[in-house]
Amino acid sequence: MIKLASPDITQREINAVVRVLRSGTLSLGPEILKFEKAFARYTGRKHALAVSSGTVGLHLITRALGFKKGDEVITSPYSFAASVNCILYQGARPVFADIDPQTLNIDPKKIEARITSRTRAILAVDIFGLPAEFSKIRALCKKHKLTLIEDSCEALGAVYQKKRAGSFGIASVFGFYPNKQMTTGEGGMVLTDDDGLAGAMRSLRNQGRHSMGGWLAHHDLGYNYRMPDINAALGSVQLSRLPGILARRKKVAQNYQKLFARHLPDFTVLKDFPGVTRSWFVFAALVPERLKGSGRDNLIKHLQSKDIGCAHYFPALHLQPYLVKELKHRRGDFPLTEDVADRSLAIPFHHLLTLKDQERVVRTMEQFIKEQ
Ligand SMILES: Cc1ncc(COP(=O)(O)O)c(C=O)c1O
Question: What's the pTM value of the predicted model, to 2 decimals?
Answer without folding.
Answer: 0.97
